[in-house]
Fold each of these.
Amino acid sequence: MSDESLFREVDEEVRQEQYKKLWDRYGNVIVAGCVLVVAVVAGYKGYEYWQLKQSQTAGEAFFSAVKTAGKGDTAAAIAQFQTIDHAGFGVLAKLREANLLAETGKANEAVAIYDAVAADASNHASLRDLAKIRAALVLADTATPADLEARVKAFDEPGNSWRHTAREIMAAANWRVKDYAATDAQVKAILADSETPAGVRQRARMLADLLVPLLAAK
């Protein structure tokens, strides 16, 4: 046997002895660690399954409430929406509940729900923005232009997908209080935006035509 082979064999025996000592000393810890990993994975899979079942149950409840609302039974639909306590469908249920309340003339209750959804930082930003816009639409016929501006001003920025609705809300609010100069400014902003939806643009043009004699009389 060459010296190199002898050294290799001795080195292998030393390593085996070291592994044996390590296993004798820490074997139980290693096994316990492996069991813990398996338990954690199993627990996570169980939690995933539980979440899936919760989502399915909440989804079924949500669409059942939507169906009830479609039949015209608003009170029953609202009661159904109020029972849905789920991170995703729960927020959608609140928005639908607020919509039904607004449709039945309960504007203050509707706005309170919209404002609560908008104020909850745990909700997705898109849903919070939707709640803010919906609240402004509910208040569009009664709130002052200043109050409405405080609600929608942040949306009136290039690239914001809600800017068109925000501008139309403000144009209508200023028209309602006969502030024709402010109305005209909003109408011009709507018409100048190349991405303004056709329906919004058409209504803005109609309002622009109505403004011509009113602005000329000033």
Amino acid sequence: LDTSKTMHKMWCWLIVFHLFVLYDFVHCITLTEVRVPKHTIRGHAVKLECHYDMEGEALYSVKWYKDGREFYRFVPRDDPPGSVFPQPGIAVDLENSTSEQVILDPLDLSSSGKYRCEVSAEAPSFQTVSDHGEMMVVVLPDQDPYITGGKPRYQIGDPVRVNCTSGRSKPAVHLTWYINGDPAEPGLVKRYEPRITGADKLETSVLGLEFRVKPKHFKHGDMKLKCLATISTVYWKSNEESVEGEKLQKAPTLESRRAVSADSRADRVQVIVTLVKTVNVR
């Protein structure tokens, strides 16, 4: 009898255990999307989004962290439900922040970092899920890229030595050279380390281009040199210069060819005359 009661209790506990497991399996909250922009602009606002499916569970809280430190909490049963925990680089627009979004306005360089959203359910499950994203705050260049060192005209064989310089930015602008619309060959490009200046340590990019002019570099008598400056998808500017080929350079070449051609005809005439004379003598 005791053995029977013991077995009965074991079966009861086993059933309860399976019910808890089944409960956890069926009611599992999920994060459907955590949206943190990879690049944002200093002085602008940004919306961080955290979307979730409670699967029938009651929401206990939504928390946001930057680099491991909590800065925003939304608890539906609190009044008001939203709370802010100050820290450098974080300016929460509390009025427009909810359980599924938090607005930061304005942004500065110290706003860059790892942002994590954490969603928790009420009792009895107390489930918690989280995900994160990295965000970098960009300082746009204070001026467009410009080209220096170029000449208005070039002849075949002339050296070209030009530089493209960007405005001060954060991070450094990525520069690319194009010759007549085609990317310059890597061997023609001269790279320099970005210059860091000012208290905010903004960076100035410089990229050189060096080569000797060849006939292929002229399209319809012109050579176009373009410098493209980019920062991810938030900044895209270019500067292009068009230079002419020296048109007078061809005249001496044409005269030389004509002279050679005339001499060759004279030589052929002389040979023919000599052959005729030789035949007549015989």
